[in-house]
Design a protein that fits this description.
This protein has one domain: YaeB-like fold (2-Layer Sandwich). A 4-stranded mixed β-sheet has the order 1-4-3-2. It has helices at about 10-15, 20-40, and strands spanning about 5, 50-55, 60-65, 70-80. The model has no long low-confidence stretch (mean pLDDT about 85). By secondary structure, it is α+β, with helices and mostly antiparallel strands.
């Protein structure tokens, strides 16, 4: 069964915003499940050392996948910085 792990820092960050931890876990689990299905095709693999980023709500979440161990590790999150709309008053 696939697992999602949080580093201590990531766990503390996600506990600050109500509901974001579950959203992040589900989003990364979806990516992990897709990667596991792709790996069954034998068409390539994702390095477990490759940092990956996904946007979940107001956060950019950094994580890594270990397809062989069927696991994802969440490393942290940063708030999304929205570009200011230019020329709009």
């Amino acid at each position: 069964m696939a697992q999602v792990y949080f580093t201590v820092d990531a766990d503390m960050q996600f506990r600050r915003t109500v509901g974001i931890r579950a959203q992040v876990k589900r989003a990364v689990m979806d990516v992990l499940e897709a990667a596991l299905e792709i790996s069954k095709l034998g068409t390539g693999n994702v390095s477990k050392d490759a940092p990956l980023i996904v946007r979940v709500g107001p956060c950019l979440v950094t994580y890594s996948l270990d397809v062989q161990q069927e696991a994802a590790t969440l490393w942290g999150a940063e708030p999304v910085r929205e570009a200011a709309a230019s020329g709009q008053d």
